[in-house]
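Quarterly update from the structural biology core.
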Amino acid sequence: MGKKDKAKDSAHIRKVREKLERHMAKADKLVNDEALNTMKRLIERQLERTKSQRIDLKSKLVTLFDENQNPAKSESKYVANLMRHLKEPQAEKQPKQLEGRVKAISDENSSR
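Predicted structure, tokenized:
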């Protein structure tokens, strides 16, 4: 399919497309080297300011798995219940017997 096969945009679609293009061009002008450097400095200052509140993970022993044998304990009761339910062996459900509960059509006709 070439461009000739493509339907023309309606006036509404054309207006919205132009509005979006103007909006994107305006946003692109806001992203420049100066704005990026300003944001970089702001982030660095915030990280430096909160440095004392952070935990040094190098001094902590953080383990989620014991050599990939067992997963970490879940804090979610929902997940814990699902895990317990999956670990328990499931008793096979016997199909419900219809014998004695359903009468054949021929049995009904003969009793009339």
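Residues 10-51 form one domain.
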